[in-house]
Every structure is written in structure tokens, then in C-alpha cells.
Amino acid sequence: MAERSTATSPPQGPTGVRDTADATDAERADTRTISLAAEPTRPASRTPEKSADSPETPELHSGHRLAKRYRLEECITRLDGFSSWRAMDEKLRRAVGIHVLPASHERAGSVLTAARSAALLGDPRFVQVLDAVEEKGQVHVIHEWLPDAVPLSTVLATGPLDAYEAHALAGQVAQAMAAAHRKDLAHLRLTPATVLRTGPGQYRIRGLAVDAALRGITADNPRRADTEAIGALLYAALTQRWPYGEGAYGLSGVTGLGKGSRDPLATPEQVRAGVHRGLSEIAMRALVNDGATAASQKPACTTPEELDEALGALPRIRPAEPTPAGIPAFQHTTYQRGTLGAVPGGAAAPLRPPPPPEPALPGRTGAALKWGVSALLIAALGLGSWQIADALLTNESPTGDTATEQIAPPVENNDAPAPGPIEVSGVTELDPLGNAQAPERVGNVIDGDVGTEWRTSNYFGPGFANLKEGTGLVLDLGEVRPVSSLTVEALGDTSMELRVADADATTAPSSADDFETVADGSGDSVTLTPESAVETQFVLVWLTDLPQGGDGNYRGRITEISVTG
Known about the structure:
Elements (H helix, E strand, L loop, with lengths): L16 E3 L45 E2 L3 E10 L2 E8 L4 E9 L5 H14 L7 E7 L2 E7 L5 E2 H5 L6 H20 L12 E5 L2 E4 L4 H6 L1 E3 L2 H18 L1 E2 L9 E2 L14 H4 L5 H10 L17 H9 L21 H4 L25 H31 L27 E2 L3 E5 L23 E2 L6 H4 L5 E13 L1 E16 L15 E13 L5 E12 L11 E8 L1
Parallel strand pairs: 12-13
Antiparallel strand pairs: 1-11, 2-3, 3-4, 4-5, 5-7, 6-7, 8-9, 9-10, 14-21, 15-17, 16-21, 17-20, 18-19, 18-20, 18-21
Helix pairs in contact: 3-5, 3-8, 5-7
């Protein structure tokens, strides 16, 4: 994974955002801030020369060990007295990221405070801060390293996102930042380099509070600054363009509707054909620029909560249907093909009509042959029917053997209904420690959409990091029903058990031990079948082991559960 910024042009900073760090032009490529000011082409101001009293970057090198535990492997950033590294945690045998700066650095105290506050948030939508310590005259901030994650700037290098992915990006970042703001934490440096794509429709944010503290970035209105940044991310995702005159993060800039740099910003719909109109409007409502909200009568979005509410009000956007292998996604007309059918010499290939079908036998010969074949078929059918009827009347088989009397077996009277799907009336979490996993997502496992999921918390070791035996979901069937099987669709190889409550239970048991285990299995698509059908109202899907993710941690994800009676 490339955990570094790939931008090479001057950064743009949010309204009211102040970056007090000094850097050379080459260093600025890795210290991007989003400019959402009223004059979008004006770069963020910096002190032209580096202070003579600025602390020097510690003399570190690959192979150096910090705290007798972390072995530095690759320097990602070296700037203004601090450096960022990819390292190996030799105790837990996993990759981590580390920021290092001298304890005498003027921003060392604010970095430690920001890192410890971010670590307490514990929101899995952010790259987690694992430790923040001061030792031997140095400050170390250790965070997760996601080897399989890809920065949004790299994703956009191949093209814009479709509407489903862009909606997922903006929604997840807005929800994450709303949660952070409720804990008085701001990012102030949300860019395509700090938003990471971990899978289809899945995004995580790195550098919450810490990136801004390292670079001395502040803002008069942090909520507004982060909201503007999300609007810029959505704009870039829809258009593959940075929403200001000067490009950044490997993206070209966007000029105004007129010829001047201060003209109203073109909407995503005007920049690229086929952009989702609702998402285009929301991106403009989040941005701050001349005429940004003129595309709609709706008010501007000034907080992540308002932005998330606007995204939630849109009609549901479904993921694009995959094109089956071997079938072209779209057949162009002759006019649209242009030179697609050109021959090597450069001239357009002539359109040839399909070859005519082979002619039938001509004249009277063909007609006579057809009538002869028809007569033979009619005669054969008549002869066969006569033989069958004669055999039935004489109680003999067509071969002359006496046919035995055939007695139809009696029809069994079975009033039991055929097995079929059982509707689940409700889902709740069950955790032995009482810890919430993702209660707002439990409905995703019965919504019929494998694109949504319920997930467990993040655990830093197998077997729930030895904290507990498992966690799971209780399904309420509404009434006592016979259950013959249960199918679970998961992301990753997950071990689980099917447990059922006693048929006399009128409420779901509060302990997993009060359920009876009737089946178990593992995989990413598991059908759990008890030896015989059981009757119950409450079914527990109990997860006993979780798959390991690319970040080295363990988390369970369930997309769908179906019950068969």
C-alpha cells in the first residue's frame, strides 16, 4: 500500500484553515491541505523561510529500533522536524506506521494530545492510533498500517467513481466525521491522500487530528472546514477533477463557467456528462465558492451531519451490474462506432448483408417429397396407437406377455408444509461483555442486499484477542417456528454456531449459554443444518472465530442471513 501523497501541485486549504508549518516546494507535495476558500485559486499562505530555531529531524534510518520494539523499514515523509515511517512491530509481528518528532519540537505537546484523543475515539472508520509516547527525547505516535488499502488519489488516477461508490465515499466520510466532531475532534486535512479505499464501497480515514497537529494546521470553524473538504472529495470522485483552478493530488483543476478565475465553479454535471444529478448538487452545496449553491434552492451543507442527511434523502443508488464475460457491455450504432470498423488501409469497412439461407428443394420434386414424409409419419402414429389400444383391451403387453395389474400406491396424507424461507421480524446483538458491535447495522443482515453488512468490532488478535469466547446476532422469528437450516453470507472465513432458544421461551435469552448449539461450520457462505428440524422463536448466530484483515487485525462481517423452515 502506498501510504503517501502522490500530489505534486500546490495545496488548497479550507476556509479559515491556517497551516503554520514551513516547507519547501518539494516538501509541500506531502503536506496537502484542502483550499475551499472564496478565492479557490489562491494557495494557502506559508512563512517563506524556515526558522533557524526549528528542531532538526531525528537522525533515523531503516533498521533503527524505537522503544526496543519497532523496527523502522521505510521513510514515508521527512518534513519540518518530524518524519513518518513504515515499521514492523516485532512484538506482535505486524506492520505499523510511526510519526517521530523531537520532544523539544514546538508542536510535540499538541501532537501527543491529538494522538491520545484520537485513540480514545476507537471508531473503526478511522485508521487507529495504537500508542503515543514520549521516550528518550522523542515523541512516537504509532498507528495502524493497512497494506491492502489504496489512497483515493491512486483510485482516481484510473478514472472517476460511479454513483454508488461516490455515494458510499461521501456518506462514510461524513458519518465518520460527524462522530469525531461529537467528541470535539476534527481532521482539517481530509484529502484524496488521507482517505483510503479498503474494498468495494469501503473507505477509512487516516490522520484524524494528528496530521493537522503535526503540520500546525488550525481552523476558525473546524466543522465547516471538514464539510467543505468532504464536498471537494465528492466533486473529485464524480469528475476526476480537483474543484479549483489549480490541480492537486494528481488531478487537473477546474476553471469557472466564465473565463476568469473568480467565475462561479462549474458543477460536476457541467464538467462530465452522465454524473448523478443528486450527488452533483450535494457536492456544490458542501463547497464554498462564488455561486456554489446557485445550482439549487436548498441551503448549503455546513456540517457533516447535514451533508449525511442530504445524502440519505437521495433515492437509493444501486451498484452497477457486472457485465457477463464474453458479452459486450454496449453495442454502438454504425454512427457511434466511427472508425471502429475501419480496415487496415484506413477506409471504412463496408457493411455486408448476412448470407441468404440455403434454398429448399425447388419445384414439384420438393413438394412431393414433403407430402411423402408427412404421410409416412401419419401412418406410423396410427399403427402405434392401434397396437397400444389392442394391448390394453386384451390385458396383454405389446410383446404378448400378460400384463400384471398395476395398483397405484395410496397417497399419503401429509399436512406438513413444504420447507420454505421464514421471515425474520427482528435482529439484536448479543455480546457476553455487553459491548455494542454495530447495533445500527443489524438490519443489514435481513434486508436482502449483500452489498450491506453488519460488522463486529476490530480485535487485535485471533479468538477475539482472548477477551471473550464469541459474539453474535439473535434473530426473532415472531413466533415458534420449525427451523430446518440457516444460511449465513459473510466476508472472509468465519467460524460460527447455530444456537436455538427453548421453544417455551417468550423472550430472547440474555446469555449465549442459555441457547442450545445444534450446528456449526465455517467459511464465507455457510449453511448450518441441525440433525433434525427444531422448533424455536429465537435463533442465535454465534461467531466463534473471525477472519484476519489486511491490517493484521480481526473482524467479522455478515452481509445476509436467511432462515428456512
